[in-house]
Amino acid sequence: xxxxxxxxxxxxxxxxxxxxxxxxxxxxxxxxxxxxxxxxxxxxxxxxxxxxxxxxxxxxxxxxxxxxxxxxxxxxxxxxxxxxxxxxxxxxxxxxxxxxxxxxxxxxxxxxxxxxxxxxxxxxxxxxxxxxxxxxxxxxxxxxxxxxxxxxxxxxxxxxxxxxxxxxxxxxxxxxxxxxxxxxxxxxxxxxxxxxxxxxxxxxxxxxxxxxxxxxxxxxxxxxxxxxxxxxxxxxxxxxxxxxxxxxxxxxxxxxxxxxxxxxxxxxxxxxxxxxxxxxxxxxxxxxxxxxxxxxxxxxxxxxxxxxxxxxxxxxxxxxxxxxxxxxxxxxxxxxxxxxxxxxxxxxxxxxxxxxxxxxxxxxxxxxxxxxxxxxxxxxxxxxxxxxxxxxxxxxxxxxxxxxxxxxxxxxxxxxxxxxxxxxxxxxxxxxxxxxxxxxxxx
Length: 443
Prior knowledge:
This protein is of the alpha+beta class. It has four domains: 8-56; 71-126; 142-297, Nucleotidyltransferase, domain 5 (2-Layer Sandwich), CATH 3.30.420.10; 305-364, CATH 2.40.50. Helix content is 40%, strand content 14%. The chain has 16 helices and twelve strands. The protein has helices spanning 8-21, 27-34, 38-51, 71-84, 90-101, 107-116, 123-126, 184-198, 226-233, 248-256, 261-279, 300-303, 331-334, 382-399, 405-408, 424-442, and strands at residues 142-150, 160-167, 173-179, 203-206, 237-240, 306-311, 317-320, 323-327, 340-345, 351-355, 358-359, 362-364. The strands form three sheets. A five-stranded mixed β-sheet has the order 3-2-1-4-5. Strands 6-9-10-11 form a four-stranded antiparallel β-sheet, with no helix packed on it. Helix 1 (8-21) packs antiparallel against helix 2 (27-34) and helix 5 crosses helix 6 (107-116). The longest helix is centred in the middle third of the chain and has 19 residues, at 261-279. The model is unreliable at 371-378 (pLDDT under 50).
């Protein structure tokens, strides 16, 4: 006889039954140890004495369960899953198999089959470990950009934003610029300065997705910001994923007595040279991957601008930035009714209207503009916008006449009247005088 597989529970039963059979333990105590009834104890003793200890093991051991799914069916179901539902989860797969193929298999059975066959990964197997990103090999291959809103001049001036461009391969500071807020034109100015100094890098990288991508674009929008659109036109790759200078830079500016953005921007050139000499790394490869500009430098203003599309109405007008723009009537503009054309807003505030790249003469019908509370303002522009709103409110408060509730409802003050209704005596005297006057005229 070969080896017999038994569980620990079955081995304990055999040991107690042997002691009861030898008289070392009575039936009642044996039943109590095995947590069974005396009747069940007598049945086990009978089996033990007639068939031996092997008969105590579970009768279903080694046999297929009554509800076992046939191996051929299992293989067929797995083939269906691989062909049609390879990327489905076990729950949805079970529903699809029952609905479309007539196979009713429990979710957990499917999960076990799919895990065993490598179709589905358990939660533990699906865990991802984020490894630190490797530094790029070449100078100019990847430039990290960031904007940090901070009290850079401590209490000597208002808070402002520092735009930072850092080469990933060498940690070299490529461009630093103090700006009022982290706006599109601020990034445009810093980017233009960078490109004129160094050329075009292969890619820009930012951990702020909103620099390049609109969080919730509508169906009419490309999903790309003005900054992302400008980089695309310059054939510069966009990578969305902070390094800060708040300790060293702030202290050096304090020692130098720097208290304004203009003085700070003049100070940054020397600071970058000192910082790079101390902290810049040697790249893995010596190649400089910066490229020459793909357009003439004097045409960068056409790239670094706000660009939007507007529809032309029947009267050859369009709306842009709270303004109503009227196009000059000519052969070109007559064909633009109902079509979208491009509106360019340049960094100096000038507006251009173009159709298929051709500039169109226009006039502004209502050029006045004011900032309202209803304007939706991005958080990075909030400080500058709130300052302007506060100034507008203070100026308006000096010229606005405060009206009472009655005045707002249309009541007009007429003043006190000194004459009341005429009395009986006054009427009598007036009548007598009229009669005397009449008699004098007749006489």
